[in-house]
Design goal:
63 residues
C-alpha cells in the first residue's frame, strides 16, 4: 500500500501529484490494459507506485 507520506516525499505539491498520477493512470489504462487485467491491479495504483519510485518523468509548464 502506498501512503500519502510516500507520495509527499517525492512530490511536494499535492495538486501536482494528483495531476501527474492521473495522467499516468490514463496512459497505463490505454497502454497496459491487458497486463493490468492479468494481475488485477488498477491503473491508478500502478501510476502511484511508479510516481513513488520516481519512474515518471514530467515537467511543469509555467504560464
Amino acid at each position: 500500500m502506498i501512503s500519502v507520506e510516500d507520495i509527499w516525499k517525492v512530490v511536494k505539491n499535492k495538486y501536482e501529484a494528483v495531476m501527474v498520477a492521473a495522467k499516468e493512470a490514463k496512459r497505463v489504462n490505454i497502454d497496459e490494459a491487458d497486463a493490468l487485467a492479468k494481475v488485477g491491479e488498477k491503473p491508478i495504483m500502478r501510476a502511484l507506485k511508479r510516481l513513488v519510485k520516481k519512474k515518471i518523468k514530467y515537467t511543469i509548464q509555467e504560464k
